[in-house]
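Write out the 3D structure for:
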Amino acid sequence: MSLLFSIPKIVIGMTVVSFATSAPELLVSVQSAMAGYPDISLGNVVGSNIANLAFVLAVTIIISPIEVTRSFYTTDWPMMILASVLFGAFIYFDGVLSGGEGAILFGLLVFFLFYLIRFQKVAVVDEAPEDDAQLPWRKTLLFLLIGGAALWLGSELLIYGAVHLAQSMGVSERVISISIVSIGTSIPELSASIIAVINKEKAISLGNLLGSNIFNIMAVLGITSLIIPVEVVDKGLLTNDLYWMIGIALLILPLVFFPSGRRLDRVDGIILLVLYGLFLYSLFT
């Protein structure tokens, strides 16, 4: 698609790939909210955003470091922070994400996507432009449909088994959604990112993770709250999980500059994995 429409690869990563890999979060959040389990809806998104950066990105950059350029920290990272902070402000004071607040989140996403498609420059160096080959548009569409459907089905099967296992162990809905469900719905991001790195398409890998976090908040929770307001039941989400989500998102910027400078490398990946372990520990203590 990037070649077909002459769009920078990071834009494809932050739009098409992000939407496809965020489909499990959207389905789980809408279904759980409508079924009367709002903590699964909210915890799924918060936990997935933490897992995307502290687990998926960590594994990705341990496999292969990622070089970033100026537009990463002038456009993509700031938008992720804006989405995270805005969501936090919406639910922190009254414990509810209303339909009006969801409309604001989704409206900002539409504006951001328009900006990306029109103005965004490449934010990661393309290491293998000579490997690019244009596929016929029918095959492109077929691959997208098959890949998206397979991601959705695989995640649904994993989540179904994990949730029932956790419930049989007597774990709370919030802990289920923040840990097991969020990891399950982040597996598409992990698969897409590792494959992108192996194929030397790091622009898609990094863009996918940043875009997925933006999509999770602005599209998944935005659409969910438009259908039905989402209320926080377990206050641990506000007193613990929300701080971890915003804190790890903020940490990505200094990690880009230190210790290597304008890159995310293996040391950064180890730091993120350690933080993810501490976060999971905080859930069960």
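The beta strands are 66-67, 96-97, 230-231, 263-264.
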